[in-house]
From TrEMBL:
Protein name per its UniProtKB record: Uncharacterized protein
């Protein structure tokens, strides 16, 4: 990034950190200041930043030449005064004053930009500043705190992430959405009802933090790998032919070899349409002495590149008479503690949260309240559906839709067939939703005990999230 812009965002981060450390932001208090155009604070700020605040109190549109050393020194002087009200007002104008300049200076050379933050001082301030992207189904939400003051950018306080780090992928909308589309088309593919995962018996390991022995389990291998590979490739092509934008597969049914074969197949048949974003079946990889086992999904972009790998970060457990048995991943909890977030204008923020990571209350709240995704893709290998169903609409207040894809293969790990009446769902919160029609808020997909299928070949379900008030929402079985 251009040095002046990075420095500008460093100053915004320093202001935010100061405000966060001093007091809780009160919208009512700031509104009173914003409404008093003749308050002394305005005159002081105009004397410091005449190019930022016009005489009529609207925000000036800054150029790179405006944000050099003199501007930086002026910000330092305001910070030194430690006047929280003045810092609120300065932040308000800095956010609005730099938006056009940022958009002009930052272009999409490769359709993708990758960054941890727009500011360089996030290690010192623990504040991450990012460009705010709009979401077509986003609803007005009161009480956004200090972030509600910002119009063009938003921030994340790393102190609230409990060590989790972010990797941000800013995608050009034209690289994700076909022009003039009036809805986002989503598909989920449970793939198979056959037993496909071989789990280990419980074994004893040592907790890396306490040094105390505890029971663990691992995935030994994926069964019927060739059949699953062929089905994944075929379902990608079918979903692509139906102009699907996002396709989500389940958890644990993938392997590294499968990923290579799928990518090779897509590359050799590059003229065929494929979904823009594909959440690959997660890969459970065991390592020597189980020291670095992982469970990770891959986000594939346009069928020709792996955009990122998303690790499962919470350890699933099941209970036995001898005590709980934990999924043996993440012995080094800091190594893969990264959440990848896609930012797309019109769609907002998209991320993968694998199965139990979505059910773990602390992890869920941490992500939802601080990262504020607008679309969560959740590949799953679950013996139950109740919690996913009840939590599906939990974050509508934050305009977040959920895509949950389970697999009927998991039915082999339980005797509760009723748990597989539902095998997936897509919430469809939009500005077309009808308050008295619950079906307008979600599509629910039937599993093996209700779907009536003879086999699972080409098992794909579809849903659409309207992007306009007047677009037509359709669905396919």
């Amino acid at each position: 990034m251009i040095n002046q812009l990075a420095g500008y965002f460093d100053q915004m981060a320093a202001i935010i950190r100061r405000i966060e450390d001093k007091e809780i932001f009160r919208e009512k208090d700031f509104a009173s200041l914003l409404g008093d155009k003749n308050h002394q604070i305005y005159f002081e700020l105009i004397s410091f930043f005449p190019q930022l605040i016009r005489d009529n109190r609207t925000a000036g549109s800054l150029m790179i030449s405006d944000i050099g050393e003199d501007f930086s020194m002026a910000v330092s002087q305001v910070l030194a005064q430690d006047n929280i009200a003045m810092l609120h007002l300065l932040l308000y104008y800095m956010d609005r004053g730099i938006g056009d300049c940022y958009d002009q200076m930052i272009g999409f050379e490769d359709d993708i930009e990758v960054c941890d933050a727009l500011n360089d001082n996030y290690h010192d301030t623990d504040i991450i500043i990012l460009r705010k992207v709009g979401c077509r189904w986003e609803m007005r939400q009161p009480g956004k705190g200090l972030n509600g003051l910002l119009q063009n950018f938003y921030y994340i306080d790393q102190n609230r992430l409990d060590g989790m780090r972010l990797r941000n992928y800013i995608l050009d909308r034209t690289a994700v959405m076909r022009s003039r589309k009036t809805s986002l088309k989503i598909a989920v593919s449970p793939i198979t009802r056959k037993k496909s995962v071989e789990f280990s018996a419980p074994y004893e390991g040592v907790n890396g933090r306490t040094g105390i022995p505890q029971k663990l389990f691992r995935v030994e291998r994926v069964l019927g790998e060739k059949l699953i590979t062929d089905q994944v490739i075929e379902n990608i092509h079918i979903a692509g032919a139906k102009e699907t934008d996002i396709l989500v597969f389940p958890e644990m049914l993938g392997t590294e070899e499968m990923l290579c074969k799928v990518m090779e197949a897509l590359e050799s048949d590059w003229k065929t349409n494929v979904p823009t974003l594909i959440v690959f079946p997660s890969v459970w990889e065991k390592t020597e002495n189980d020291l670095a086992n992982t469970n990770k999904s891959y986000m594939i972009l346009n069928g020709d590149e792996v955009l990122f790998e998303q690790h499962k970060r919470c350890d699933y457990k099941y209970d036995t008479e001898g005590g709980p048995v934990y999924e043996d991943i993440n012995r080094d909890r800091d190594k893969n503690n990264i959440l990848n977030v896609i930012h797309v204008e019109g769609l907002g923020r998209i991320c993968i949260i694998i199965c139990y990571d979505y059910l773990d209350e602390e992890n869920q709240e941490r992500i939802m309240k601080n990262i504020r995704p607008t679309l969560v893709c959740t590949p799953s290998f679950s013996t139950g559906s109740f919690h996913f169903k009840t939590l599906a609409e939990a974050f509508f207040k934050q305009s977040c839709n959920l895509v949950w894809c389970n697999t009927c293969s998991a039915a082999h790990e339980t005797d509760k067939d009723r748990n597989f009446e539902i095998i997936g769902l897509v919430t469809t919160l939009s500005k077309q939703c009808e308050q008295f029609n619950p079906n307008s808020f979600e599509r629910i997909f039937e599993g093996k005990t209700k779907c009536g299928r003879e086999n699972c070949k080409n098992c794909i379900y579809y849903a659409e999230i309207p992007l306009n008030r007047d677009s037509v929402k359709t669905g396919e079985p």
